[in-house]
Amino acid sequence: MAVLVVAMIFIGAAMVASLADYRLLVSVHKPLGMAVLLLAVVRLVNRFLHRAPPHPRSMGTGERRAALASECLMYGLMVSQPLVGWAMVSASDTPFTVLGVRVPPIAPADPGIYSALHETHLVLGYALFILFTLHMLAVLVHVLVLRDGLLGRMALWRTSRQEPGAVRRGGP
C-alpha cells in the first residue's frame, strides 16, 4: 500500500506539472487509483475481521491515540480519494476503462460537479501526502531511533525478532 500511495502522489503531482505527459500519467493514475481503492477495502475488511497487533510497549497512551487516529484518517483517505477521483472522471463524461473493462460512472456528467470534485480530489491528495509523510516519519523514528519493533506490527510477516511490543536493547 505504501508503494502505491507514494506512486499515486508523485504521479498526481506530475499530472499537475506536466501537460506534455498528461495522457500517459492519467492512463497509469486511474488503474492505480482503483488498485488503491480495492486494496484499502480489503485491508479494512481484514482489520474488522482480525484484531490489530498490539502497539509496542514503548508507546504511551497519547502516542497510541495519535497512531490510531493517523491509521483511521489514512484508511479514510485511501478509500475516499479514489472514490472522489472516480466520481470526478464520471462527471467529466470521459469513458473510464481499467484493463480493458469499462468502469461504470458513479456521478452524473456535469461540469459543475466535475469542478467541485476536482478541487476535492486535489485537497484530499495534499491531505494524504501530509498525513502519509508524518506517518512514515513516525515509523522511521520507531525503527531507527527507538528500535521498538513497530515495523513488525505493520508487516504482513511475523518473526520472533519482529514481535510488536518487544523492546530491543543494544546490538544490531
Unreliable stretches (pLDDT < 50, length at least 5) are: 159-172
N-to-C CA distance? 28 Å
Radius of gyration: 19 Å
Mean pLDDT: 88
Number of helices: 5
- The helix-and-strand class reads mainly alpha
Biggest sheet details: 2 strands, antiparallel
Number of folding domains? 1
Give a structural overview.
- This protein is mainly alpha-helical and 172 residues long.
- It has one domain.
- It is 67% helix and 2% strand.
- The chain has 5 helices and 2 strands; from the N terminus they run αααββαα.
- A two-stranded antiparallel sheet has the order 1-2.
- The chain is elongated, with a radius of gyration of 19 Å.
Question: What keyword list fits this structure?
Answer:
mainly alpha, 5 helices, 67% helix, single chain, disordered C terminus, 172 residues
Question: What is the compact description of this entry?
Answer:
With 172 residues, the protein is mainly α. It has 5 helices and 2 strands.
Q: What's the topology here?
A:
Elements: H1 2-17, H2 22-49, H3 61-91, E1 97-98, E2 101-102, H4 111-146, H5 150-154
Antiparallel strand pairs: 1-2
